[in-house]
Amino acid sequence: MRKRLSASERHDRKRAEHKRYYAQTAFKYERRRWTDDEDKLVLIQRIPDSELSPIIKRSMKSISNRRWRLRKAASENKQTGLAGE
Predict the structure, then answer these.
(1) Using one digit for the tens of pLDDT, what is the confidence trace for 30-45?
(2) For residue 57, is pLDDT > 50?
(3) Alpha carbons 67 and 42: distance in angstroms, whole number
(4) Alpha-carbon torsion 56, 59, 64, 69, what sign?
(5) pLDDT single digits (tens) 69-82
(6) What is the DSSP string of 3-47?
(7) Distance, CA of 67 to CA of 73 (rounded, Å)
(8) Residue 82 has what DSSP assignment?
């Protein structure tokens, strides 16, 4: 029978898995500005980030962060009535 993990142990294990997953593409590509075409590909999310990463030459974590930032900005613009500006 398996030993039950404490909440702290589960957190640590999940964090380690997360780091291993994103480390696959973490430092493969140079930093550069995002293009409108890249933003569109990130937002439509038709293919997994792991497949999109080599296409647009961005890390999976940067893709995830960019999607979050774009959605957050869109949400804030919607709330303030500044959509499209």
Answers:
(1) 889 999 999 999 999 9
(2) yes
(3) 6
(4) negative
(5) 999 999 988 877 76
(6) PPPPHHHHHHHHHHHHHHHHHTSTTSS---PPPHHHHHHHHH--S
(7) 10
(8) -
